[in-house]
Amino acid sequence: MSYSEKLLDHYENPRNVGSLDAKDDSVGTGLVGAPACGDVMKLQIKVSADGVIEDAKFKTFGCGSAIASSSLVTEWVKGRTVEEALAIKNTDVAHELNLPPVKIHCSVLAEDAIKAAISDYQKKRGLTPTVKADTVRGDRQQLIAQGAVKAGI
Amino acid sequence: MKIPIYMDYHATTPVDPRVLEAMLPYFRSEFGNAASKSHVFGWHAEEAVEAGREQVAKLIGASSKEIVWTSGATESDNLAIKGAAHFYKDKGKHLVTARNEHKAVLDSMHALEREGFEVTFLDVERDGRVDPARVKAALRPDTILVSLMHANNEVGVLNPVEEIGAITRQAGVLFHCDAVQSIGKVPFDVERANADLVSISAHKMYGPKGVGALYVRRKPRVRLVAIIDGGGHERGHRSGTLNVPGIVGMGKACELARLEMAEEAERVTRLREKLRLGLEKNLDLLTVNGSLEHRLPGNLNVSFAYVEGEALMMAIKDVAVSSGSACTSASLEPSYVLKAMGVTDDLAHSSIRFGLGRFTTEEEVDYTVDLVTRKVTKLREMSPLYEMVKSGVDIHQIEWANPH
Q: Considering the entire predicted model, what is its pTM?
């Protein structure tokens, strides 16, 4: 499969790999995907008091496109407000990295990861999630959130 | 050492220079059609074809009269399975195979199912082998053919063909064996295996692409309905002008394999073990898929848990390997061979197949061990699953959603 230079760059030099303290109230954690499907993304954001995402970290189990997609969105969300970050669409990611058709699901996963991280942050702060659970692709979010809570993340 | 390194010998092999040398005259001065009976060009071509037939037969303990030339193993599998089913359809409508067979076998079986034949797809054991007891239990009074491979193309695991052949012979059922991966690598004898039909390919054993053979037993005689009709070549089994240079190459490849197999198997096994032990020493949470004991010398199929196979292949792009990960194919399903063995989906996504062979060097193995170790370590550092497992989380307890 031939990949774009941008994709290869993000894959070979991934940005913002790592973890933030999930227990911190200003940190939101999104964990999406499933091992059985070959991709799991963990995206964490740290939000300042005025609602700006000041840091983002990711860890991804998945193919090159999944790693590159998550690396890209950590760059994109940094410096944006929560609302602005929610405007990032999977098609933007797919376009930027020139993902081949069979890899579009990687960009979908990256968008989901942003939504999940923001939703987690908002819940922690007692805010009403901007994106309701049922708009985030069925019950996935909730299921994963439960699992993650059960798993102590 | 030359980069990239080739470690995908199950996909194909380079032509041995001695094979190429033997083939060359048959493109130029000896270009005759083996079916031309009226002049010396044809006679020379026919002599070469018959010499090749002898060389192939000798490698598998057969008579040269039992070798039918084909375009390759996919055709051989099709001819064996469909040809036998169509000839013996009045005797019965039932065939037996296994879930981990090559697509050429499975898809031929599916085609027969659409014609009204019934097929039993056997489960395989955890170690990748078919239990002969399952074969015996699957036989019915109307079973006409059992098709089981000798060595699997993904995990290199060897089926107990001699035990299977004893069962089919006693039951009076034909035994077709796809021995594409094993012939020339480990001993295979049609008499010991009681095989009635055997598929062979040249390009898996340092011969050229586009030529293969089907062994068709003469005593007791096995009959087939041809798939390709035409001039009645190959005693009506397979019409079409013979690929003389290819046949010469396949014959030479078989001869070399027969003479050098023992030594080569030992050397390749030693390299494979060096690779395995090197990786096992450097990395944790690594699983070898399939039996190590009953295995081709050059195969190592390993799952590197919590690292996705395609991502790893991209990271080690200096080494040509293949993966059972779904991401290497258009489908979202990981390897059906690994799944048939009970390997979980996450570990199937994490699998890499290393295929070593005649031209693999110790230096290449050392380079590969070092590269894979570094890249797996790097990818695990960015794997959320590895992080969770290392902090004591049981990821199988998590209720993962299914996104596809």
A: 0.92
